[in-house]
Each structure stands twice: as C-alpha cells, then as structure tokens.
Amino acid sequence: MTWLWLLVLAAFIIYAAAKSVYNLHMMQLNSYMNRRFRLWAKQNGRRLFPPLEALLPASVLLLFFGMELAAQLTLLGLLLLLRLLYRRPKEKKPLALTKRAKRLYILNITLLVLFAALLYLFGCSWPAMAVLAVLTVFAHWPTLLANALLAPLEKGINNRFLREARKIIEGSSALTVIGVTGSYGKTSVKFILGRILNERYNTLVTPDSYNTPMGLTIVIREKLRPVHEMLVAEMGARQKGDIEELCRLACPKAGIITAVGEQHLETFGSLRNIIETKFELMRSLPENGFLVLNMDDENVRDGMNLPHVCRIVGYSLEGRGDYNIGEIRMDSRGSSFVISAPSGESRRFSTVLLGRHNISNIAAATAAACELGVSLAQAAEAVKSLPPVKHRLEVRETAQGVTIIDDAFNSNPRGAQAALEVLASFPGGRKILITPGMVELGERQAELNRQFALQAAEVCDYIILVGPKQTVPLREGLQSAGFDPQRLCLAADLEEAKKQMSEWARPGDAVLFENDLPDTYSEK
User: For residue 245, is it within any domain?
Assistant: First the structure.
C-alpha cells in the first residue's frame, strides 16, 4: 500500500501548504519575529486549529487494531475534507508578497516536502502517522523553523539595504531630515508638516506607516531624490532602542515628539521605558538641531530632563510653550484658532480637521515648519486645504443621510476620548458608537477600556461592541454606568456590526467607528 501512503503524504502537503499561507501572513504582521509570532499563536489557537483536526488521532488509533488500510483511508479522507473545507480568516490588510515573504513561503513548503519524504521512509507505522497528525495540526511550526533558518540571510540583506540608505542620506548634504515620533498623533503630524513645508521646500514624506528601519530604508532608496530639501520621517517603536536605530539611519536634524502615553505597554513593559525610548530622538539630535515638544503632555515634560544638547521648542494649548494656541472654536465642520509665535506674531488658522487633538497636531507641525523657515502666514494658508487623514476622524455621509465618522486607525485613550467629543459635537440625530475597544495597553488595558466605556455612555445613544472576548471590560464599564442594555449590541465581527448599524441608524444620526483591530486581533 505504498501508493496509498504517498497519497496521504501528498494530501498532507497540500493541506499544510494552504494553512502556511495564513501562518506566513501572521508572521508578516508580527514583523517576522518568532517571539511575537509564538505569543500570537498562543493567544489565537482557535484560529490556527480548525475543530475537525481533532479527529486526526482517530486514524492513528486504528493502527493499534491492525487496521492499516482503514487507518490510511481515514487519514487521507480527513486531510482531503480539511482542505476542501479550509478557509483562511477574513483579512483586513492583505498579505504583501514581498521577496522576503516569497523566500519564507518557499522554504516553508520545502520543509513540508522534506518532512513528508522522511515519513515516507518510515512507512505507514503508528509513529509516522502520529507525527503526520501533529504536523498537520501544528503547521505553524515549519513556518517558525523556516523563519529561524532564514534569519541570518535576511539580516544580511537588511544590513546591506540599511548601509545603502545611510550612504544616500550622508551624500545628501542639502537635505534636512525631521523625525516625528510619539505614542499617538505622529502620523497626522507627519502629513500636516509635509503639507506646510511644501509651501517653501521640496518635501518628501514617508507614506502610511513606513515607520520602521526597513520601511524608512525603502523610502530612502526608492523615493528620495537630489531635488528633495526636506524629508519628514515617522519613527515608530515597540521596544527600547528602536528610535535610536532609526536616528542612526536617518540622521535627523530636527524632531517632534507629539505625546507619550500607555501605548504598546505589552512590549515596552512600563511607561518609563516608553518615555526613554521616545526621547532617544532628543538625544540623537545635533547641537545645532531642535526638538518640538508638546508641553501639555506631562510625560513629555518629564522626558525633557533627560540629557540632550539640542534646542527645545514647545507648543501648547495651555499657554506653556513658545508657540501657544488660543481663541479655539470647534464644531462638527472643523475648527479655528490662533497660533502665537515666539516673535510675537499671531495668525488665525482654520481647518476641516475635527477634534482638539488635531489642533494640537497642527500646532506641532506649524512650530517645526516655522523653525525651518516657513512663515506663520504660509502655514495658515497650507492648513486651510488640509484633507482629513484617512481613517482618522474622516467624515462622510451615506446615501441614507447618516454621518459616518471613521476613526478606525488604532485607538488610544486620548484619541478615543477626543473622538467621542467629536461625535458629541454633531448637531441633532442620535449618536452611535461601533468599537472593539483598545489593545496593546498592557496591564492597564482592561481599566482603560472600562474608562472609555464610561465616557461613551455619557455621549452615545446606541453602542455596538465588536468581539465577545475583547469587549468584556467595555461591557463591564457600560453596565456600571447604567447604560440601557436594549441599546447595546455585541457583534461577532465588523460585518455583523455594520448590519446592526443599518437597522438602528436613520437620517440625521452620526456613527463613530472607533478603532478597527488588525488581523492579529480578529476573534473570528
């Protein structure tokens, strides 16, 4: 029955290869870090192991009763049925088929074929079938092994690209790099600053969330040209040393720290570690450089005490900075305010961007641009035409007359509170919130989600929570606030939430989508 055993092994490879595509996607979303992927796998076992796989050991047991043919046929039938029924979980962000992803997948499949070849040599014995059943269930193990085997090669490739990018930066003597970091607000500030700087300079802005060393390397190697005078580089971090690494690559001469808060606590471990990491930017700036700081943020003010040689420029909505914001007017159509510069000049700004936090973001970008030679008048003119940043309080109206406020980009405590303030500012109609809550907040995640629920209960007429496990603290907070359970819905996923919204929402209502968890946090 060698031919039948071959068919079983072929079915194993086909099914495991299909599962490996999903494993590759999750590995990519976990930055190709085995440690993070293992943690994700531990927390998301249900998504890795289809329930039908629990029947695989039954085929092994048949061997103990001398039923070799029945055992092989049962295993073959189960593998074919599993492949027929297998569907990858829905993806919000598709797998990027980069060269690295292709290398990892090819090696992954090669390992599966090698495992199958070894099992063929052992023949249809109970140890071979048991190993096959285990490898079928734990198909992410070959992905982890392939990633570990490729690590030296990938490190070498990355280092070569990093050296090339650093050489390009060092050869661009007329280029000024501005690093933008912070627990939140950095992406918005980056785009706003780029728009303002374009009033005077040829400016390149890193796209989307290209805020890692390799993301920045791609931008430098593929987008940066000799005509560029300014490069605005977003700098993200998940652990100490990340910002310092980005600064070694980009050599910034100026920087902005927007805010420091309890974001990514799971990887940082403590708020103090976050402060020290963000202020690696300050310590990396030269003596003739400057750093723009949010003086309204207590944690930012705390970080100023760290050693540095650069000049500090503050902005504030509370009169604490060099650039101060006053006479604020906000409504559902946008906001206007006055920015006063250190020179004594003042200028009224107006924008369609919503929320007090966006006023702070504009102030940060304006302060940096003015220090780089843009006039206050030029900054005000640029801000007038600022489009909303995608998925950050982006407003649209449906054909049914329902206002959608899209704040789906990863949420944080301050941003969530600001979004609720924006929702409350819309006149007339009922207020509906759709949210899965906030993540990556470490030990305080449950507490901060309960606080968010209390704030939401004061503003919202209806609330739709997405994901039964993730939203437990939100439900606890709403219950303690006495929120009407008849106006609360628990949806399994975003599609179900949208269906419920269509039943509740009517013309004139406003619906806030607050946070849309990445694929690694999906519960379905």
Answer: yes
pLDDT digits (tens, 9 = 90+) for 259-291: 998 777 667 778 899 999 999 999 999 999 999
| CA dist., res. 312 & res. 329, Å (int) | 28
For residues 413 and 419, give the distance between their C-alpha atoms in angstroms, rounded to a whole number.
10
Rounded to whole angstroms, the Cα distance separating 368 from 361 reads: 11
H or E segment and range at residue 74: helix 68-85
**β-pairing verdict for 176-181 and 254-257:** parallel
Same-domain status, 189 and 117: no
Give residue 239's pLDDT band: very low, low, confident or very high (50, 70, 90): confident
At residue 142, what are phi and psi to the nearest 5 degrees? -60, -30
312 with 399, same domain: the answer is no
The tally of domains found in the chain comes to 3
Determine the pLDDT at residue 301: 94
**Are residues 441 and 268 in contact, defined by beta-carbon separation less than 8 angstroms?**
no
The residue segments making up the domain with residue 368 are 172-384
The CATH number given to whatever domain includes residue 465 is 3.90.190.20
* Closest among 469, 457, 465 to 489, alpha carbons compared: 465
In the DSSP assignment, the letter for residue 188 is H
pTM of this prediction? 0.81
